[in-house]
Amino acid sequence: MTPFLQLAFVLVIILFMAKVAGYLSTRLGQPSVLGELLIGLILGPSLIDLTHLGFITDTHLQEVVLEMGEIGVLLLMFLAGLELNISDLTKNSRVSAYAGILGVLVPVGLGWLIGSLMDMPSSHALFLGLTLGATSVSISAQTLIELKMLRSRVGLGLLGAAVFDDVLVILLLSGFLALASGHGGAADILTVFLRMLLFLGLSVAFGLYLLPRIVRKISRMPISFGVVTLSIVILFTYGLAAELIGEMAAITGTFIAGLMFGRTSAKNEVESGIRALSYSFFVPIFFVTIGLNVDLHNIELDIIGLLLLISAVGILGKIIGAGIGARIGRFSWRESLQLGIGMVSRGEVGLIVAQVGLTNQYITPQIFSAVVGMVLITTLVTPPMLRASFNSPKKTTPLEPSQEKTP
């Protein structure tokens, strides 16, 4: 088969199996995203190794599929932002700040403590802590959308906390790399912080003042799906700007782009167009590719103990840290628990931080394998834990009638 036919074959398998697995997961009372994550693990190198079957000769096939998955998570976070109102987020800014900051500091501190007790060099122990501090809320956001709770106090607090989490993790990581290399210091950390502020300022200013005018102009022009295409251009631009200007995660940029588009007159048109594109194609690919990124054969038996330890610390550290932060922000104990669980998943962000440590030799290949296992475990346990925390007669009430739709 030609490279294109090989890609078509792999996409057929991924999309079909993702939807089947998602359906079966819902029939078992779990979020559909859990089934998509598990089928990705089965299709990945841990079992079937779909992208490396005997007749697959295209060496770039897996990379192409993974990049399609990256588009999926950008679209997912754009939709999450599109569903929300900026004023609702600002009302929860206090709880978001406390939960985001403590949700980083507590697991980082616990990870450093574990590394120190294992007689790791101080720099290695600290970096192990940093790998536990990262959060990826894309999995939790999708689960909350299915539960129709994205616009609840917990959902708003969770997404706001994720922004603070992203900022703090990047600052800590940048500061660590600068100090550990011996070629930087406070000036480098200040530069990173200023770049974040520059990105946030530019993105909000553009979204508040220029974007509505551009949307109105495009909507009056005889262009097929012009506004939807514009939204795709803007969300990618925000993602690029987040990475290149603010040194933040691209998903933070696309989330902000969604918030900005949510204020425009074309919100409903953009939402229907992007939702169909996302959930029919790119988002299922993203959830499946998480499993395609993991090879359980690389997790050696002699690190199982470490894997279980850092997984337990990774889960409890986020629940305790973010949960206490939410409680300080005057959430109820139940809401604090729900928000803490929502921060547990490390997803692709955890893998990126771990890869930085491996590349710079701040963690060994064995520690890296354990961290990859921790990322997988925290990603898999988050959807059922989050659903269970809402499965009670006393649920968190949305701030207004929810308009989320189950994909």
Q: Would you spell out the secondary-structure blueprint of this structure?
A:
Blueprint: H1 3-27, H2 32-43, H3 61-83, H4 86-91, H5 93-117, H6 122-133, H7 138-146, H8 153-181, H9 186-219, H10 226-244, H11 250-261, H12 267-292, H13 304-328, H14 333-342, H15 347-359, H16 365-390
Helix pairs in contact: 1-2, 1-12, 2-12, 2-16, 3-7, 3-11, 3-12, 5-6, 5-8, 5-13, 6-8, 6-15, 7-16, 8-9, 8-14, 9-10, 9-11, 10-11, 10-12, 13-14, 13-16, 14-16, 15-16
Task: Describe the model.
With 407 residues, this protein is mainly α. The protein has a single domain (64-390), classed as Na+/H+ antiporter like fold (Up-down Bundle), CATH 1.20.1530.20. The protein has 16 helices and no strands. Helix 3 packs across helix 7 (138-146) and helix 6 packs antiparallel against helix 15. It starts with a helix and ends in a 17-residue tail after the last helix. 51% of the residues are buried. Mean pLDDT is 89; it is low at 400-407.
